[in-house]
Write a structure and sequence with these properties.
The chain has 266 residues and is α+β, with helices and mostly antiparallel strands. It has 2 domains: 117 residues, no CATH class; 88 residues, PH-domain like (Roll), CATH 2.30.29.30. A 7-stranded antiparallel sheet has the order 6-5-4-1-9-8-7, covered by helices on one side. Strands 2-3 form a two-stranded antiparallel sheet.
Length: 266
């Protein structure tokens, strides 16, 4: 065999292997796209891998993307069931992924499952040191946060014109064309206290080191969630703005607030 024949054959084998690997990648991705893996699809994947000579090493790069796609399918509607979690655990085992490999996706899944439980009325219970509960009150969530309020952060005079000074007598001057400036006040939303933002079945409470507040759920007229906090508007029109230390829990806080406020009006 001439050297170029060997090169051509090696090139052709490489192309065939790439096509075979791509076929298996497509097969795995399609099999788990709904967040589940049937026994029929599992056998098909194993059979095709054997027939095409595809090894575990060959499919290693496609394992995590396939699992990520399955998690995305399950969490797309914001509702996660126990059966779906078990299906994803089966996919993880089939793809031979460790918990460390899928840690970020597990966190996403756990959060989606927690929010699903909240929507079903399965709320957590917590204890908050120093908080005196009302009769029949249950605490459902505690989040470390800062209370924000509008404060004056700067005052200064602007627009003054000095004009021309004429000396009249010793120690006395008369200013021609002098124009008085005006006081400018700048305000900003700033932290005024740090503490615990607490949600119960009766109230929303901020238990702060310097300043606190509590408002009954039935008195809350509007909730505006931010990526890192929440703004509550009471029926009096007063607004409370709270910023969370851990921004990752904003969606859980929002779901909890939505459930307890709706429940308080039933």
């Amino acid at each position: 065999m001439w050297p170029f024949d060997a090169i051509a054959n090696a090139y052709e084998r490489s192309k065939q292997r790439k096509r075979a690997t791509a076929e298996i990648a497509q097969l795995i991705s399609s099999a788990v796209r709904d967040g589940a893996l049937s026994q029929e699809k599992e056998r098909e994947i194993v059979t095709r891998c054997t027939a095409l000579g595809i090894t575990d090493h060959d499919i290693s790069p496609m394992r995590l993307p396939a699992y990520a796609r399955a998690v995305a399918a399950v969490t797309a509607d914001g509702s996660v069931t126990d059966d779906q979690i078990r299906d994803l655990e089966h996919i993880q085992r089939f793809l031979k992924l460790t918990d460390a490999d899928v840690a970020i996706h597990k966190q996403m899944l756990h959060r989606a499952a927690l929010i699903s439980q909240i929507h079903r009325g399965q709320l957590a219970t917590v204890d908050v040191s120093g908080l005196v509960r009302k009769k029949g009150e249950t605490l459902h969530w505690r989040e470390t946060a800062s209370l924000l309020e509008e404060r004056v952060v700067d005052r200064r005079y602007v627009g003054a014109s000095h004009g021309v000074s004429l000396r009249i007598a010793k120690g006395v001057t008369y200013r021609i064309g002098a124009q008085r400036g005006h006081l400018v006040t700048e305000k900003a939303i700033v932290p005024v206290s740090t503490g615990d933002f607490v949600i119960s079945n009766m109230r929303v409470i901020f238990l702060g080191y310097k300043k606190s507040f509590n408002v009954y759920l039935t008195k809350i007229m509007d909730i505006h969630m931010f990526a890192d906090g929440v703004q509550l508007t009471e029926e009096s029109g007063k607004q409370r703005v709270v910023r969370f230390v851990d921004q990752s829990n904003a969606d859980v806080v929002g779901a909890t607030l939505q459930y307890v406020i709706n429940a308080s009006r039933e």
